[in-house]
Amino acid sequence: MLIADAQVHIWAPSTPQRPWPPAGPDLPAPHRETPFSAEQLLADMRGAGVDRAVLISPVFEGTRNDLVLAAARAHPGRFVVMGRIDPAHGAPEHWLDELRAEPAMRGLRFTFHRPPLRQWLLEGKLAPLWRQAEALGIPVMVMAAARDFAHIEKIAAQYPGLPLAIDHLGLGHGKDEEAFGHFDALLALARYPNVVVKASCLPHYTADAYPFARLHPWLRRAVEAFGAQRVFWGSDLSRLPCSYAECVTMFTREMPWLAEEQLQLIMGRALCAWLKWPV
Question: What's the total number of domains in the chain?
């Protein structure tokens, strides 16, 4: 079975030559005390049986793609990148032309739950980007709070050719029922064929222990609503409270209600098709 991870962060230490932005209320703390390199990730992937991963720069490093792009160039069969951009700098044409010139960059990722990007979402300032990304078929991953799903729905409806992925099943703060408190709002987005969901970081959102059985009914509802071809497994490895292997086997061994074809799609084939990443 091909296993492709829809989201992993790698990062380097903050140095005078490559400083992080100043810490503040708009930036989260690093997920781990020590940086997490591409080499460490590759070792973890081998141990967990993961074949491929989508790399995303963590927000605490700032709006940069240098490290993830270097990793993807060095390991083109293992990594691709969803890039970060700063909407305050440059025109959409510039952002997307730069993206298209880089084979390792397969799309864009936005963290709309944090300022100032959230304000750009609320004010509709990214409309030129959505139009051009739709025209070019460039995938976009977004992390957004349930309070802003109406704005995500507006984008999905207005740009039906835009491939749009919602991170972490749209989950918010807390664990279990608290985290899934607005889950119906996510499921309502399934009526838009261009919307997919990432079943990523799920063990982070439960107080349950492996095999995280309290998560399974929620995931089943997502698969029933979106279909397996629109649900992508992912780990968000640096935030997991469990091992990488457990994040894999909670799907591959512990959910017998998933048919083999569904499992193949969720664990990697649907993601690779969405990213036009040849298998």
Answer: 1
